[in-house]
Amino acid sequence: MGKGMISETARYALENPSSIREIMSVVTDFKKHPEKYPRPLIYLGGGWPQDPPPPILRTAAKEIIEDDHTWIESSRYGTTRGQPDFIAGIINYENFIFGRKIYEEEVIVGSGSTELTAAFMLTILDPGSEVILTCPGYLNYPRQIQTETLLRCKIKRWTVLKNHTFNPDFDELQDLISDKTRMLILCTPGNPDGQVYTDDMLNAINDIAEEKNIWVMIDVAYRAFIYEDYPKYFSRERRENEIWMCTLSKEFRVPGWRMAYALANEELIKAVETVEQARILCPNRMAQEILTRVLQDNTRLKTVKEYYETGKEKYKKVAQYTAEELRNNIPDLGILEPKGGFYVFFDASKYEKDSKRLCSDLLGEYQVALAPGVDFGMEGWIRLSFAPIVEEPETLKEGLNRMKEYFSKKK
Ligand SMILES: Cc1ncc(COP(=O)(O)O)c(C=O)c1O
Asked: Which of 323, 360, 327, 355 is nearest to 339 (CA)?
């Protein structure tokens, strides 16, 4: 293939592959050729929950498949914005689980939040627009902005983690905003940091956004995994400039289904819908039909609520255990206490300043896969995801022991 046969964007993507996806290829290789590795691989890299989806989803899936009418209907194209029944289910779900009142016109369904976030970017950004991302922040946003806007937008970073403390500074945010700024993206609980914005923090952000006329996208992929009290913003009505990005990948443990929805201003939703007509035609219909049978039925939702409660406790226990073990057994790591989500984020720069090298050494020498902080904007830091082994305490223990060995040798 000649150099001029692919786009500048594709060349950027090839030069900047996602490190999580790269680690995934090691996992795939390990599954194919375990004999090549001295020890079983312990995968603490990606945010893929190990525990199965709520059993009620399987019941609903069987109902859809076994009935001729629903089987055929759910195999057809659907509406671009999402099936009306599914949207009615989402309205009920938001109210039943999170206590939030939402309106039909402010909902759009997407094929996973990655796809839907990209649709919002295409709808909001022009060449030359600026986007503010937090630092640290989810590693896929910058790649998405670059690929969706053909490298024509500027990314600015708002540092919310200072001296090992989550402490967003709103004057700094004000200073970053220019007349080209169109949106700010944040994540609560955070990936990779596990921190949860308080009500005061989100109010301060919204006040600035409304004054400056920018959108605030709030990614709540991990909202079902908040270890202590929920801030009120999960249940209050949407503020004018907010875009709530809600994926079912984590809370329902169905990342392969590619199901998400967003809540936003009605006119913005209409614009995104029109963009989506050209991009996806419609989101996965079968998944919507299955989920509708759960989201519209409060008896079924009650079992989902219980499943969330149990899940939250399970994840919290593992998060706290992991942070404590690292703190007690490996000196000089700067550990950020997780408040929610799947991750423990820590500063390992006293051992190795190059986080990619640290991850590569740990993988090569000890067969433990972690994610380098540099990909989340924080060089010297490391992200440990306990989600893939949340139901295997012995594997986690073994992984932590191998890390202890690695770090003590490194010292
Ligand atoms: C913060 C955050 N947002 C979005 C996603 C992707 O979600 P989806 O499966 O809905 O594309 C992830 C995946 O790990 C994530 O961590």
From this structure: 323
